[in-house]
Design a protein that fits this description.
The protein is mostly beta strands and 113 residues long. The chain is built from no helices and eleven strands.
Amino acid sequence: QVQLVESGGGLVQPGGSLRLSCAASGSIGSSNDMGWYRQAPGKERELVAVIYRLGITNYAESVKGRFAISRNKNTVYLQMNSLKPDDTAVYYCTITQYGAVYWGQGTQVTVSS
């Protein structure tokens, strides 16, 4: 069983920065991918960023150049810079291993003046 706990969300002004963290615990193997998704009110969940086991990263076009995903052991981070109101959403951490996908409960990010 795997548990994911996100933290670091909150209210920030447009142009500000925020760093999200996600700690995975439980039956974590050595080969897995971790990433971040987000879901805004009334919209479908979308991929924000993912870091694969080999270190390759992938970002949504809307966040390229502004967000950066990184990983340290079983903790994944999402550094968010130059935040925009459209970045407002619940951000979810994920981990994929052995063909199974696990989700965190989400952390709210609100970008507003």
